[in-house]
Amino acid sequence: MFLAQTGPFSVLLKCATKKCDLFVDNNFIDFGTYVVGETVTRSITLTNRGALGTHFQFAKLDLPKANPKITVELSNSAYSAKKSSPDSDAKSSKTAYQSSTSYQQPLSPRSETKSVLSEQKDTDSVQELFSHQGSVAVIASPTSGEVTEVPGNSPELHDPEEQETEIRIGQVSEGDIRPFTSVKLQILFLPAIPGEVQTDFEISFSDTQSKSIPIKVQAKAIDVPVSVIKPNVDLKICMYDRLYQDSILTHNRATTALQLTVEVCKELRNHIELLPKTGYIQAQSSFSFQLKFKPRQTLAEDAKNYFDKETRVLEAPMTIWVANQIMPVPFTVHAIVTNSDLEFNQNEIDFGICSIHESVWTTVLLQNKSILPQQFGFIDIPQYIDVQPNDGFGTILPLETMNMNIIFNAKQAKEYKFELICKSEINRDFKISCKAIGTYPPLELSHSVINFAATALNDSSTAVLYVMNNHTSQNEFTHPVPRIGRGKIAPVGPTSFEFIVPKDSNLTITPSVGTVLPGKKCMVQVLFRPVLTPWEIQQEAVQLLYQIAELRGFQNRGVSSAIQATESDTQSKSGQKSLKDNSPISTKTHVREPKSKSAMYKAPKSESINEDSPEYASGYVSLVRNFNSQLNSFTIPCFVAYGQTTEHKDPGYLPYSIHNTLYLEVHCPRVAPPLVLISGNKQNAVVFGDVAFGQRMVKQVKIQNISEDYLELKSSTLDPNGPFLVLNALRPLQPGNTHTLIIAFSPTESRVYFEPLEILTEKATLPINLSGTGVKPSIKCSVEGVMNIGYTVTNQIKTATFQLQNDSTLDVDFVMKLDSLSYGKHKEQQLLPAFLELKENPTLIGVQNYGAQSVFSVSPVNGCLKAKQSQEFQVTFYPDHESLHYSDGLSVELFGTVSRVIQLKGAARDSLAYVEGGDPVDISSESLTILPKYGESGQPVETKPVLLILRSVPSDNKFTTAVREFRVGCIRSNISTTKKNVELYFDSLQGLQAKGFNIDPTRISVDAGNSRTITVSWLPSSGYDPSHTTVASIKMTTKGNVTEIYQIFLIAKVVLA
């Protein structure tokens, strides 16, 4: 018995002792008829439903059981097996080997038994199934989850005589079955001699309380040279009028070719066809027949003996006749035949008279008559029809019924007659006939449903709609015309309308009556303003006066009772003066009671209460504080008539047609105003003004709870990508408390921003209009992209300048940041070099000074750029070793945002001379760059390579001159050397000229701070082979403060256009 909050309850507990509950799913197995030489397997399932495990043995009744010396013990969920003596194992192993090898001996085909055993296919299967020499016997099925292995040879579990029989036990002959598990036991039929065979088996158990279970098995073997591999052909589930195919494979065990003739019974010849009807099967080979099954609708009548109408099962016997063989080869075709019909509960739908501004729907039932799932879809649906769910497509389960919604929306005034086509996956059509009459009113509304937001008292919500007159012509062949079905066309001309607004709905429609000319539209404004009427306020004021009077009466009666009690206490305890002194009300206090008890308070009439009186204000405050939210829905009819309203003298008279009436549905929720904005302007707007990109302006807004309720405040979701952001959370407000809302404005574009913020409560919404203007700082830079400082001598400073111009009207804060000083520098340097990566390395950081010191510096680093002013920045380049790949990135941040990125580049040499140009032959990574070494005498120790590839393009069967250039310069330096310029000359030009190369000039002198251009040209000779590439080299010597030798490599080739 258990006791809960809902009361006591009991649970029935049933107990029983552990025992075995053993049974098999089938006690009788009939293999049927099979050809000699085949191998057939059947299984039975032994199940233990009890809570106690046991050991079982599966054996024939006429054979001795397994060796009793084998014991199986269960200990801690693990099984162990004990063998008998080694001599018996060796003997049984030998016997098993002889038994297994006896199937492999070639025998004479004259003997039926020996010819059957000589089949290699069956022999292999038998060897695989029954040869256990040197292995273990599995005596538990995998289905039980436990496997017991008995070491030793299989003859201990299977008698040699048993292996020679035709009906045998499979691999599982004994084992342990655990509680609530099952074991599968296999029985094999290997027919060797024609005839019927019957064998009895028994499953015995070690549990004395469990009885043995008998198993009876019978089979029949026939000996024919030709057999069917699959005597039972199962075509599964088939549909009428659909073609299904399969192959019938036959096998010839004879040594000669035989003629086969297939025969279909007369009743099924219109449904089943076998091709070819006659064929020859070669000796020791196979032959295949093609089965074509196409069930007709007349199958039930044609094949009454083979087809069951109730179960829809077809069992068709087929026969294969073999030449010179009396006994035919039979096989059976099995199939379940079902139809493919989809059925609707109604074949006709009448939607009636429908306006083009309305939708009419009905539900039909779709039923699947087939026992197979079918896919379906409504195709070629007209535009005015919609089928749901899933747009009319889906899958219907066998014998299932589905609800389909057919929605009709008339597009024009006419009579509709159409068919809905439902097509199944097998291309069958099922149709529904539909009809309707569409009406086209002469006027129409832009929208017919208005959902107002929850509007507080004295607040207002506005919706706008249009009444349109699109009827400009009675020509029905160019455009739709207003009419009812195929009736008379409405006249073209002024058409009047009138909205009938219900009383006390707090709705105002302007204009409520009007006339719309052809081709024009009239704007109609619907205003919802929930207000308290003066009569309601006056009635509330009267009630308050009654309550006040009643409260005063209770107070007077309470004071009088207290006085009387005090006087009686004073008389009874006259000696206790302290009681008189401590009395809450002095004995001198006197309250006058009404002279007459029947004199009641008379409140003034409600009409006499003036709107400026305190009573009127008290009534208003009382109604506002105690106002309950309401939701009112109104359906406003709009009557339509031809002509103008001024034609009728009687007021309020407007002839109309019921079929042309339009309806406007309005939903009006109204609530009490619990929340007000006590800071800002009267329009509940917060204006931030002009704010620059990257800046944030913060303003505080106060809201107050003027209701008597505890308010949980929530806000609407602002645009997450917008500039406005609420910085603090909203907290609950007690009555009369205030809350400060902090709002930030961070513009991202140069435009005016406007976004509404709604403070939500359970009863009302307080809208706050946020506005501000984003101003983009207009900054111009004198350098765009790359700033190359040029060459300088190692350990010397070189400077360059650039300017930033502020063209905006706001002051801009700037910060200069070098990439080499950024926090992500070390992470970016872990990347592979650019020459090893497949994609370009995005970093701008190149070679830096030793010790990871930045080679560039910028001044000033930060500051404020005044409006309409400019600022000059100085970039200093100070290298400490020679490199041509100094690089760094300079980020210009405005208000914390990167405005532009400038790549700073520079090169440093130990000598005054430098060479630039040509094709790249080195890499930008410093760790792999090999710089030349100079001795103390100033003599060069190695040459520097310069590569020039020249390409000549043939034109008009002539070769053009290919030209390349490179520059040689001299660095202006403060080094005190005797030589301030660089001299250059080439050696042995004759070899180059012989190959068509020309260099100009060959000897020059370059002053400090200048550079000269060297031009290399190549013109192929007249008999030059375009497929040949000319390669040459020449040494160039430069003399400055040191002497350097450059090896100029020239590669020239002809490029076809």
TrEMBL record:
Keywords: Cytoplasm
Ranges for domain CFAP74 second Ig-like: 23-224
Abnormal spindle-like microcephaly-associated protein ASH domain sequence ranges: 675-753
Annotated ranges, domain CFAP74 third Ig-like: 226-338
Residue ranges, compositional bias (Polar residues): 97-118, 563-588
Primary site of residence: cytoplasm
Chain spans, region Disordered: 78-124, 141-163, 563-613
InterPro entries: ASH, Ig-CFAP74_2nd, Ig-CFAP74_3rd, Ig-CFAP74_4th, Ig-like_fold
Domain CFAP74 fourth Ig-like: 344-438
Gene Ontology cellular-component terms listed: cytoplasm
Name of the molecule in the record: Uncharacterized protein
Source species taxonomy: Eukaryota, Metazoa, Chordata, Craniata, Vertebrata
